[in-house]
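During the practical work, I worked with a single protein chain and the tokens that describe its fold, as given directly below.
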Amino acid sequence: MRATVGDQLVQHGRVVGQHDKVGEIVEVLGQEGNPPYRVRFEDGHTGICSPGPDTEIRHTEIQR
């Protein structure tokens, strides 16, 4: 799993009724885009995440 600053990190809900948690990657702490990542979530909370199998990275498009 590789990411860059500005990509979205999505943690999918694990049980029925639990919503996905979406955040923006504000810092990549690993080498070459690898985890861990510092993520700012929609509720304003910032934390360090090492994504698991229930997580996806949504890459931002580079506009030219």
